[in-house]
Amino acid sequence: MFEQINQKKALLDANRPLPKYTVKSLREKLLLEWTYNSNAIEGNTLTINETKVVLEGITVGGKTMREHLEVLNHRDAIQFVEDIVQKGEPLSEWQIKNLHRLVLKGIDDQYAGVYRDQQVFISGAKHTPPPPYLIKEEMEQLITWYEQAETKKLHPVTRGAMLHAIFVGIHPFIDGNGRTSRLLLNLELMKDGFPPIVIKVANRLAYYEALDKAHTKKEYDDFINLVTIEVEDSLNLYLSAINKNA
């Protein structure tokens, strides 16, 4: 299943370090596309070009303060993910709460980085997240699962996809679970030297359906396949930069 991406990852690794300005422009491209698509999946109406100008510090007329904050917060959350990767810090509940705090900063400070105290439902999904009194226990179980030797042996793509799916199934926060789950997925991939991936808003339906299948039937293959396609897409982008520099 992962033969092709393993080969592409090995080729990328063999050509590292990439030129400094190539790396900078790739990071900026992916940061923009990741921020735009992750927010668009959740209903943010800023276009990719509007997202770009907001990242440059310009206000877009006719758009809400929340939509602007979602862009700036997501940029800060990506920076936090990059710092974790650089320091090689292990995953923890504290880290997840801090990541979420950045996602909701200035949008809903009362619930930023705080587990929900109310029942929530996911519109359009068959799966119902657990009641609030079970969240702490389920999050502890998620970290325990993550730390198991068996989990460590999984391919990084499988491990990252399952971390995303299990986390978003728990839906531990009132808001911002989707963005946080995609940040966690990329955190896991980046720890293993993969470039970050972009779950595209155009694939939102397939994305939701694959997640619902993972939650209701504990069948993760569709979701892992969807993530694998995006991993290959990002690897292809990086490899195209190598070919152009050759």
TrEMBL record:
InterPro entries: Fido, Fido-like_dom_sf, Fido_containing. Pfam families: Fic. Residues 91-229 form the Fido domain. This is Fic family protein.
